[in-house]
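Task: sequence design from structure.
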């Protein structure tokens, strides 16, 4: 079992969600987040003080999958989020981590059956 966390641009949520549904990945968690990656705004000085660059809004997807669905999930996210319209930089990141344990509260199922 793996936990896949993807950070994408806000405007990509619908197309990524549709791509995941087409790949038969239907259980996802979506959160609004903000941050910045490698590309940061130039440091500004306002009234003699250094200003922290603004954080960019984004979307965080969390998807728990069985091992056989890892590549399918990654490919669905990448295919839907890779469009770089208007020359925008910062398409996001995908993180894959081991998922030690999963328990469905309602039925008390554990492991792969709970996902």
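Answer:
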């Amino acid at each position: 079992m793996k936990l896949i966390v993807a950070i994408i641009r806000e405007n990509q949520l619908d197309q990524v969600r549709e791509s995941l549904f087409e790949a038969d990945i239907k259980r996802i968690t979506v959160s609004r987040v903000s941050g910045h990656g490698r590309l940061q705004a130039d440091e500004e000085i306002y009234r003699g003080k250094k200003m922290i660059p603004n954080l960019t809004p984004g979307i965080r997807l969390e998807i728990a999958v069985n091992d056989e669905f890892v590549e399918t999930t990654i490919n669905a996210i990448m295919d839907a989020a890779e469009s770089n319209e208007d020359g925008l930089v910062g398409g996001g990141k995908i993180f894959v981590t081991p998922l030690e344990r999963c328990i469905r509260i309602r039925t008390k199922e554990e492991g792969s059956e709970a996902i």
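The mean pLDDT is 87.
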